[in-house]
Amino acid sequence: MKGSLLSVLALVSWALASLDLPAGVPRSVHEFRKRHPIQPWADDPPGRQLITIRASENDTDDVSDAFLKALHAANHGGTLFLPGGSTFVIGKPLDLTFLDDVQVRLDGEIKFTNDVPFWQKNAFRHPFQNSIMFWKWGGKNVRIFGDGVLNGNGQRWWNEFSGREILDSTNTYLRPILFYAENATGLDIRGIHFKDSPCWTTFFVTSKDISLSDVVCTAESKNATAAPKNTDFFDSLNVERVRIERAWVNIGDDCFSPKSNATDLYINTMYCNGTHGQSMGSIGQYAGELSFIRNVHIENMWMLNGQHAARLKAGSNVGYGFIDNVTFKNFWNGNNEYAGFLDSCYFNIDATTCAKYPSRVNITNITFENFSGTTSGKYGRAVARLTCSPNAVCSNIRFKNFNVTSPCGGPPLIICDGIKSSIGTPCVSSSSQEAKSALANKCVAKMASLPSATPW
Ligand SMILES: *[C@@H]1O[C@H](CO)[C@@H](O)[C@H](O)[C@H]1NC(C)=O
Ligand SMILES: *[C@@H]1O[C@H](CO)[C@@H](O)[C@H](O)[C@H]1NC(C)=O
Ligand SMILES: *[C@@H]1O[C@H](CO)[C@@H](O)[C@H](O)[C@H]1NC(C)=O
Ligand SMILES: *[C@@H]1O[C@H](CO)[C@@H](O)[C@H](O)[C@H]1NC(C)=O
Ligand SMILES: *[C@@H]1O[C@H](CO)[C@@H](O)[C@H](O)[C@H]1NC(C)=O
Ligand SMILES: *[C@@H]1O[C@H](CO)[C@@H](O)[C@H](O)[C@H]1NC(C)=O
Ligand SMILES: *[C@@H]1O[C@H](CO)[C@@H](O)[C@H](O)[C@H]1NC(C)=O
Ligand SMILES: *[C@@H]1O[C@H](CO)[C@@H](O)[C@H](O)[C@H]1NC(C)=O
Ligand SMILES: *[C@@H]1O[C@H](CO)[C@@H](O)[C@H](O)[C@H]1NC(C)=O
Ligand SMILES: *[C@@H]1O[C@H](CO)[C@@H](O)[C@H](O)[C@H]1NC(C)=O
Description:
The structure is a single chain. The strands form 3 sheets. The protein has a 22-stranded parallel beta sheet that branches. A 3-stranded mixed beta sheet has the order 7-8-11, covered by helices on one side. The chain has a single domain (about 5-45, about 80-440), classed as Pectate Lyase C-like. It has helices at about 1-15, 30-35, 65-75, 115-120, 155-160, 350-355, 435-440; strands at about 20, 50, 80, 85-90, 95-105, 110, 125, 130-135, 135-145, 150, 175, 180-190, 195, 200-220, 235-250, 255-260, 260-275, 275-285, 290-305, 310-315, 320-335, 340-345, 360-375, 380-385, 395-405, 415, 445-450. By secondary structure, it is mainly β. The structure holds 2-acetamido-2-deoxy-beta-D-glucopyranose (10 copies). The site of one 2-acetamido-2-deoxy-beta-D-glucopyranose (NAG) has 5 residues, from loops. Its main location: secreted.
């Protein structure tokens, strides 16, 4: 009785109280747009030919043939113009890998039909994690600009997927990625709102010079029992030179998550609510395959109500590789599980299996610098945890000015196992009494506040 009364009281005070974002940080899409206006290209030549198409009259009025034709017409120097106040419904898979010097001005909305059986039969397929795609973008010098919406119409997909797991070997309910590009060189997206993707929001494969700026990404379910699962904002395979600057993200999985083979990534200013964090990887999950992530700079991150803030993920056994030269800088934490997390046992494997097939992904030259804010209390007073695999080397991992506190009170603690040499601040082994009592000291944090769900 007493216990349940206490937990009811705890729940009430948790629901009433909230953790405020520091002054000046945008609290809504509206404030984000005001603070970070969309920047046009300085080098854009005037007089590009404008091509336009008729708008859809209703949610099944598919204009994909006209859209494809218009992109062919705008290719080599023109612009496809999709004005505000109009919706353009896409009901068929589109191969857009032929692009060369083309722009899309998207002020209106591109919306995909939600005919699940049709898309599951006809969408493009990618072997990685059994992905399907509405369309494929690719080519050279492609620019997409505007304050319009790319709408994946995900609600039906989330409802019907509910209760399943994407990587379950028996899962046959495949969901499309909202924006997919392969073999793209020079793809620059500005301003667009990526909305309600059925599955991952973006996926860039074998591409170079990718840039996203002043973008909004949301996946918000209206059905309490159907979460927008696996709606990662950013995923990639085999990419070089990626820049993401100023993004507002409210989705249900990784906020930013390059996977195998990523080089030279620069990420500056993101606001991520309810995500799994800024995750390097997971890599090294596939048999015999070398994979790596290197040269990543990621700074000015506002991480709210999520799982981990800065994260390095390596899968157990089989694959091998490295994550080298990553700087995580200026991370504000509001109600995240661990503010820094290095995990050599991804994904969903128990400690015994992990110990039997240890990861062969080396993790080197990593900096966690200027971290502030508070965790969720899920792991008590432990605010960061680093676990290196016995089959790998984790070296030159440095914490500087790491000042994350626990809402449970008492001194915060960092746990580290198998890390070579000092991390520049005290840390203790998970088997120590200190770590055990810090982990046991659990509590429930306040929610980091945002006024309301995205109003569009
Ligand atoms: C949607 O619009 C198209 C084009 O005008 C029309 O042919 C179709 O009948 C409309 N469908 C519905 C359900 O209103
Ligand atoms: C909400 O999702 C559940 C699956 O979890 C589904 O059974 C139900 O029909 C959905 N509700 C609505 C209104 O679509
Ligand atoms: C990229 O282009 C190459 C050669 O043009 C082609 O073989 C390949 O299938 C394309 N797609 C990817 C994902 O590499
Ligand atoms: C922020 O994320 C939390 C956790 O997922 C969620 O409960 C909350 O509704 C989100 N806030 C907004 C404004 O969407
Ligand atoms: C990553 O790069 C390595 C080395 O070039 C290559 O062997 C491997 O197949 C690549 N992985 C992916 C997923 O393309
Ligand atoms: C480490 O990565 C940064 C980019 O974040 C890059 O400027 C630097 O040259 C890299 N260092 C080495 C040794 O490659
Ligand atoms: C990991 O580090 C060890 C020790 O330095 C080295 O022998 C091995 O080749 C490295 N593995 C990779 C994939 O770089
Ligand atoms: C540390 O990060 C916070 C935001 O997380 C930022 O406001 C502050 O300016 C940073 N400090 C330095 C010295 O860069
Ligand atoms: C770590 O960084 C140092 C200095 O830039 C470099 O010499 C070394 O090769 C890096 N380590 C690995 C494993 O790449
Ligand atoms: C660490 O953060 C707390 C607030 O969370 C602040 O009171 C304290 O001054 C900070 N310490 C340092 C060394 O920055």
